[in-house]
Structures
1.
Amino acid sequence: MKLVDAKKRAEELRKTINEHNHRYYVLHQPVISDFEFDILLNELQAIEKNFPELVTPDSPTMRVGSDVTEEFVQVEHVWPMLSLGNTYSPEEIVDFGERIKKTLGYEPEYVCELKYDGVSISLTYENGTLARAVTRGDGLAGDDVTANVRTIRSIPVTVSAKDLPSSFVMRGEIYLPHKGFEEMNAVRQSRGEPLFANPRNAAAGTLKLLDPRIVATRPLNCFLYYLLGDQLPSDNHYDNIMAARGWGFRTPDVMELCKGMDEVISFITSWEHERRKLPYDTDGVVVKVNSLAAQRLLGSTAKSPRWAIAYKYAAEQAVTELLSVDFQVGRTGNVTPVANLRPVLLAGTTVKRASLHNSDQIILLGLHYGDSVIIEKGGEIIPKIVGVDRERRSGQSGEVIFPDRCPECGTPLVRTEGEANHYCPNYLHCPPQITRRIIHFVSRKALDIEGLGEETVEMLWSKGLIHNVADLYDLRQEQLASLERLGDKSALNIITGLRGSLSAPWHRKLFALGIRHVGETVAKTIAAGFTDIDMLVEATEEQLAALPEIGPRISASIREYFSDKDNIEIIRRLKAAGMTFTGPAQQAKTAGPLSGKTIVVSGTFEGFSRDGIKAAIEAAGGKASASVSGSTSFIVAGRDMGPAKRAKALELGIPVLSEEEFVKMMKE
Ligand code: IVH
């Protein structure tokens, strides 16, 4: 390669790599896999090696990508937060071992750990108290996310132990377990919000939320795998981590001391498949020299230490043919594209379908029918199409085009600005919307009517017996029993189930109505705020938006639902059938010694658990809040109240009560 060409290519690569870094660290929306990213980085590294005159100090080969955002205060790291070199083959690991042997003059002991796929965090403890939690940022300074990190239960706010250094730094990885990730996406889907592509992005996005109260509702967790400080308990990594475990930190549960490279390679091999059984994502193994003296001798480059390396397992991928795309219409009219694939074996299961999310995804991939598509499965997530092998495309295959009309009823589709999904607005007459709405109404999480499954609902609809949920309550037992596929027993079951549903809790009925963006959690919030459907029918968008976590999108959707006279008629008929739409009277809930007060609790308590004290506040009519602000009535301080909260209370002149004083106040 000539110097001019190398220069041009290096500039191109730097620009592309910087863009991908921004997508990954700041937007949490990567469009290429880590593996593809490393290929780009390796190419740039090779050019810079051959043409050292082309190296620039700000080249992405010289520094780590930055997650710094404007919303947080930036804090400098006392010890820079480096990244690790990535390798993809055992040979590269052996080379790493050889380099080390050469520098040290002997083969050291290694520690192998799993490489957690989350977001790195640096926790500073001073005199046993968590003083700061900072993201990696650009490696030199990161975002101060202490308030958010304090909500993570497995991260101790205070630690005490005999051998605890007065000041130390614990580093690790914040992640979201698969279950939490799936629940979070389910909530987002029910609210029509864009889904997170994987648990790592969801964790990264959550950690950068501005409201710690929302962070507290997300099940983030953390493994801490690196202890730094001036007075450490031991001069080797393994014993330091064991000491930290003794102090109460959640350290890696998989950690192995390896005598030499052979043991390192067998650790890597043995975890390749085993790791998939873990309830969280791992993407490789981190190999570290155990002795800190040897680590100091080996030193670091500007970007990564020479005493550690990451071995990354390739994500399991398969190539198959795209046969067709179904555009499925959901109960709220959302149109979701689902790819039908030539069946292929991937990570132990046969894959026939893959999700395509929305029209943006199709455009991004530039999909054609008959394409050879690359599908990938990470952890337990449903497979997705991550790429297309364009070279194998035949000339005449047609492009996959998102329809502009509903594939079921032909109505032009609508896309609300700022939303990723298209939906069919023909709420009343689009067949799958009608049946899916009824199916949702009777489903387990809604009114849970036994005997009324998907098939039965569809059969009743096709026979013209039901057109909406109110029609269900006009069904008669003899009428059902005379139907082909139902007998006396099923008919009785259905009728009993329907009768029982009349007195189901109010929030379930609200959820059952299937209002767009009103999922289970939102329904509970609204049902708590409006204890009667008539109040809700009359509520203005502003009144709705005043409820916690209810934004303009949800309130507009509720208004739209109740301004439709057909919906009002259905509610009238349900009421006539004996259905009540009321919750426990609000008065009983809010009247109490703490009515109208907003209270912040901080620290740990003698007589209450954390959730217990909040429940006590709410039972007494108060509101428990996570952050100190001008509207805080007072703070209840337990043991080890956070210094930041104390300072803020002092600044705003907010009273701070002890646990004893609080209990006394409740009694009064
Ligand atoms: S040790 C000096 N151990 O991987 C590097 N890192 O690509 C100290 N990671 O920045 C890091 N699991 O965010 C270490 N068991 C583990 C890890 C781990 C995941 C992350 C970490 C690091 C990145 C490097």
2.
Amino acid sequence: MAKYIFVTGGVVSSLGKGIASASIGLLLKSRGLKVTLQKLDPYINVDPGTMSPYQHGEVYVTEDGAETDLDLGHYERFTGQTMTKDNNVTAGRIYYSVIEKERRGDYLGGTVQVVPHITDEIKRAVKKVGEREGVDVVIVEVGGTVGDIEGLPFLEAIRQLRNEVGRGNALNVHLTLVPYIRAADELKTKPTQHSVGKLREIGLAADILLCRTEKPFTESVRQKIAQFCNVAPEAVIQALDVKDVYEVPLMFSAQHLDDTILRFLELRRPAHDLAAWRAQVVERALHPKRRVTVAVVGKYIQLQDAYKSIYEALRHGGLANDAAVDVKRVDSEQIEKEGAAAVLDGVHGLLIPGGFGHRGIEGKLEAIRRARETRTPFLGICLGMQCAVIEIARDLCKLSGANSTEFDPKTPHPVIALLEEQQGVTAKGGTMRLGASACQVAKGTHAHHAYQRAEIAERHRHRYEVNNRYLDRLTRAGLVVSGTYALPRKAGGGTLVEIIELSDHPWFVAGQFHPEFRSRPLEPHPLFRAFVEACLNKAAGKGAPKAARRSPRVRSAKR
Ligand code: GLN
């Protein structure tokens, strides 16, 4: 039977519960345990797929095509475990299934209530992950902050579950803030005491406290927290600010957090092995040999979390090249106002991430044109690839007004058009082309050079695709189709364009998928690794790495 670690947060939000949970995951994995993680989100949306990045940050897409919370990205990056739709559960999804059951008549005769029906459903969702083959420990992170009204059913479900599994099989980790008050020159423990008191009100004890603090605390502060919050002194862990998030697991292990957890869970395991993490991730991140600047041109650049996995994958690409990647975040509308030359001066690479809607598109097109003309490395992701195709159609194929039907339904040249399977789809939630699908990579291309494989799988989240009717014209102008997806026969056969490149450019590669979701610090994604390498070459004034020069044949899909 799996054991459970419940991670809650108190005092304020944004303390980094996701990173803390992921770090615990890595620590336990390093002790030879099979871990998985789950995020419980108390909001009513069934999944975050319909939320704006302003509300929620990035939507992380899993292999099995679930649109999930960005914390699942941390889980995958830190632990290397593959998350599924069951690893993120929202209140909306819980209510949805309870209401479906009610309509079906499953509770016939009864009154359906938060307790026990909603709480039972939550417990079922948590146990479902725990029952997975070989899982030793499930780390369950509860979104929001203790005291939130909407979080109550989740905390009540946890309370019940703890009782059911009994001592030694479940553990509560509570993340709090110990603020430093400058005027008094003191660290204050009262908010932590209040937060633990709040947990106690609903019948939950904190076993381990992770205290976010900007200053290391003295032994007396630790003792005070331990005494007032009723935890063992060694269970009061300082979560100090670190230079790099990948240091967090090392900081925790230096305070023997993993030993303390194992003791609570009555588990004996060999000492941990974090050598690779330390040497290949943390040391490299802290002491890069080179630096390079990459512009990320998007719509939500003010927001730290909107392109989380992109920024992380760029960092991984840097790690693979012993380099730091300085990201210049650029609002595409700024390019529309000031011009690409002024805004992108001095950058060594351009990345256009995924996105939706027409706002800011012209700025992205201008940025791509500049990267093409100045032979600056370019990586386009999903919408970024669609923009590259539009730019090439307009500028190299002279198809004036070329566009995606998403941005201009009446365009004379719909070089990007709705996927066949999307015709007639009107509901917005979970209806895109989602999740991993196979892609054939053509030999002799930059993509093949990066992946070193003829078949890959990548995750998707889109409704539009390259219109194969324009492929001949595009390839004659120098576009190389280096990755394709073979449509099943029942879908009419043919292929979808998945990766494009430019023949006459040092490194211009774009994919219809999201490679950033598969990048890990210990296994940087091949495209990000190759992109950063190309950017370093650009910075050093070197030309193109050797790769493909010719467009492989692509059979046109029936449309
Ligand atoms: N809006 C585009 C589409 O739906 C691109 C989506 C994306 O970048 N994720 O096809």
